[in-house]
Structures are given as C-alpha cells and as structure tokens.
Write a structure and sequence with these properties.
homodimer; 8-stranded mixed beta sheet; 14 strands; elongated
Chain lengths: 292, 292
C-alpha cells in the first residue's frame, strides 16, 4: 500500500520541473505513472496531474475546473461513455473535498493553459477541492467535474503566524483550520433571511446567541463560472449550516413541481412573496444533485 | 437615524490619517465622537476605534483582541463593574460576527501598539469579527472580548478576480462570499471523527454524499491565543455543522458532571475510549458559553 502524503513534499517547491512522470514519481509528488489522480476513496486524492487528457478542463491558475476520469477513449481523448462518481479517482477527489485535504497539482506540457511548461512537468502547488458538479461534456456524455482553488501563500503564511501564537505542545505541526466559515450578508441575502426570520427553509431550526440570529443564504444555481447563478432572491434560499452543506454538496435537491425534496425527506418552506425561479431549481437538479 | 455603511468608505484608504475624532467623523469612517463602537444591535457594528480605553486589548496588526464597552471608570480606565453582552455596542459586534459584516478599524495615538500613529488617528482597514468570548479582566471584572481578523488585500483581490468570472447582472457589485468553510482534517481530528463514524456527538446526524461522510472537529477549548487549547483528542469532539456553530458561538455547553448539555437539551454521546479532559470543558463553560 502506498503511504500517501497530503500536502507539500519535503524538497519540492512550486515551479520545480520534472522531465517525465517517472521523475515526478521518484520525487514523491505523484506516485502513479499513468493515472491523472493519485489516491483512493479510503484516504482521498493526494495529487493530480493535468496533461490534456480531457477536452473540458480549464485552468485560470488560481482556479482549476478538473474533469474526473473514465469514459474517454485513450487514443482520441473523446468521451465515449458517461463518467461514474464511484470510480476510484473520482470518489477520492470527493473525499479530499469533504475532508478538506490539500491536493498537489502538477501541469504537463500537453495541458493547454498559459501555466503549463513547454516540456515535461511542473509542480503547481497545493489546491483545495471546493466544489463538485455534473455536466454534459463537449462530447455529449456525463462528466464529473471538480473546482480546485489554490491555497494562497498568504494563507500558508497566516497559518504559520498563527502557529507561533499557540502554546500547544506540537509546535512543529501546522495548526488546523478550524475557523467557522464567514458567509457575508449582502443586502439581498439579508432580505431573504429576514423574510424567514433566520429559520431554515428545510427544517425550521433557528440558531441564535443572545437573540442574534444566524442563518446562511444558499444559492440554488451556484455563483461563479461555469454555473453563473445570480445573486438575486429568485436564486437564494435561507438554510441552516447542515442543510446548506447538504444542498451545496448535492445530497438533496428540490422538486420544481411541489417543492418537496429529493434525496432526503421533507419540503421547502416557501413564502408566497418569495418567487424562486424554476430555472435555477432545474439547474440544481441536473448539475448539483448527485443521484445515488 | 444614521445610515450605516459597511466596508470601505469611498476616498478613504488604509493608512490615511486624521487629526481628531471630528475629522474621522467628517470623513464618514466613524460617525460617533466618543464611543469606540459605531453601530447598534439592529444593523451591527460598522466601525471601531482603538484608543487605549481598555487595559486588556491587544493588537498584532492582522489580529486584534478587542474589549467591549461598559464597566470602566472613564477617568482611571479601570474596570469597576462587569460588562454586559446586551449593551448596545457589544451586541452590535456579535451581530457583525454572526452576519459576516466587515468592521472598519481605526487606531488612535493613545492605543498601545506598534501599529498606532504617533498622533491623531489612522485608518487600519477592514476586519471581520471571528470570535467572541468572556474573560475576567486584569481588574477582576467580567469583560466581553472579540477577535477581529484583517480582511487581507489578497482576499479582496480574489473577490474582484472572481467577480470578473461571473456573468451575473450586477458586474459592479462585489460577489458575496458563499464558499463553504474548509475544515481541514488533521490526523487527530480524523481519528475522533472516525471513532464516531462521522456522526454528530450531539444529535447523531451523519451527513454523506455517495458514502463519503462529512463531520467537523470542534475544539472544546479553542486553539490560538488567548485560549491556547490543544489539538488533542481530549480537546476534540465530532459535531455536525449546526452544533459546531452553536458550540463555538457559546449557545450551549457541556456539564462536566454527566455530559448533559446546558443552553439546549441533550447529552454528549461519549465513547468509553474517548477521554475528554474536564479542564477543557470547564474552560468552555466559563469563557465560551454565553449564559442568557
């Protein structure tokens, strides 16, 4: 069994180059010679290599949309079948996402991006898997997609700075990130939360400390590329943290016919004045909900 | 009624200086002339001024521990009574924390830190309130404390970068932060989560997408200064996102006698092999739990 290391490999830094996959393996960056994803569903994915395997990938440097494995013809690279969320590497990437594990990213010379090396392979640093969703690829078959976001040097620096504040016994270890997420109120998300008095539209729970209420605005069609959902009340619902995680990760979705749920039991509590757009619900059904 | 602006004021940038509180007010940074906290429990706190008012503040630049208002003698600055979480400015800061609102921070010449100006006032940028807790101050009375963390220039830059990816209709608006928190698995937090099979030790819920389970490791005595809790199984419990928020924000705590809860109904499910340290529970009882 491979002994997987998550995070940086001692002696390897961002921008280091490797002649070929064997060198990359010998350095301990990516332990498999052919597969793009190194890992398994028991431990997660420790590393990926981008090398032009899929026509649907895109790469903005700090943000990568990566396609899972399976279903493509190894010679033409075209999709010839649907991909499967349960395939080893695909599930490993979900584990990395759900358990917050950093993934090493290496770009190969065949990967089409401005960040790729002209020859060989270049180590691109650590990324977090922040999102997974389903699409019909350019070739017409279902593909499993992942958003990876770069762990910024500042973030790493801040973690080191915080470490020095701790009087814990393990000074040599990185301090775990345990800060709760900060979901910023915008004018529109606040309106939606206030409409429901900060109660979850799924379970009704209202979280409050000394009368100050807390709820989260969830976007039905997610914001940002490639989803391009809008920050408008027709695309926002008010959820508790549990149902927000479950909704964003595709554990349940809403039926547009009667607002009952699929994936878990229940029904979305919808105020008459709150016009949720069915187009957004359809998008969530098709792209975010993971049908088991 | 003042029309509160949250975030940066047009024309004012970090490092700008002001001769006195009147100038600071005229610039729109901090609209009250004496109070350190500008805001109220209905909208939150939009701005604070640090100017040596409390002996217990500390300031590391990117991180500030700030003391709430009330209970001090205006001439000697000594605490002469307990502070109250329900006092206007104190509650306003909890609203800023729970609703994710940015707070403008200005340092005055009397504030003891290496970041303070020699004279007058200096605008120090935007911060988020990430934590609140209760302490006995140096003068022996209860004080309300807040952790503020600087919104990094990189974070602001990233939000602008993301905005350009959006095809939403509001290109001029900042895109709201809606990414779910990333709580990194460490070896020890993973051990605790696995012991409970990723089920919440309070409510038993197990969140899973295609069999990949998600839970959060909560530290009973928080990590980092001034708490200095340890990242050890005796200080870690496995919670769902809802109970993690509620526990960290002090909505409930655990009784060390029988592990029943205070603040909400229920009992901590504790495995025999999991030796939670009572000292940590005591700390949470005294400093984090907000007795209503």
């Amino acid at each position: 069994m491979a002994n997987y290391i998550f995070g940086n490999i001692a002696g390897v830094k961002e921008g280091d180059t490797f002649l070929n996959r064997q060198e990359l393996r010998d350095a301990g960056v990516h332990l498999v010679l052919v597969a793009g994803i190194d890992g398994n569903p028991n431990v997660g994915a420790s590393s990926i290599v981008l090398n032009g395997g899929y026509v649907d990938d895109y790469d903005l440097g700090d943000e990568i949309i990566y396609t899972g494995h399976g279903g493509n013809d190894s010679s033409t690279k075209k999709q010839i079948a649907d991909q499967d969320w349960d395939a080893t590497g695909n599930k490993a990437l979900i584990v990395s996402e759900m358990h917050g594990l950093p993934v090493r990213v290496t770009r190969g010379f065949k990967h089409k991006s401005t960040f790729s090396p002209k020859s060989g392979y270049e180590f691109g640093g650590l990324y977090m898997v922040t999102d997974h969703f389903e699409e019909k690829g350019k070739d017409g078959f279902v593909i499993c997609r992942y958003r990876l976001e770069k762990v910024s040097p500042l973030e790493e620096k801040q973690q080191i700075a915080k470490k020095s504040l701790s009087s814990g016994s393990d000074h040599s270890k990185r301090i775990p990130t345990t800060i709760l997420r900060i979901v910023r109120d915008t004018k529109l998300s606040k309106e939606v939360k206030e409409l429901y008095d900060y109660s979850c539209q799924i379970c009704g729970i209202q979280i409050a400390v000394r009368g100050v209420k807390y709820a989260e605005a969830a976007h039905i069609k997610p914001l940002g590329k490639p989803h391009n959902g809008k920050d408008k009340p027709g695309n926002i619902i008010c959820l508790c943290p549990n149902h927000h995680v479950m909704f964003d990760k595709g554990i349940f979705t809403i039926k547009k016919s009667d607002y009952s749920l699929k994936g878990i039991e229940g029904k979305l509590n919808l105020d008459k004045s709150h016009a949720v757009e069915k187009e957004n619900i359809e998008y969530h059904n098709e792209h975010i909900f993971i049908n088991e």
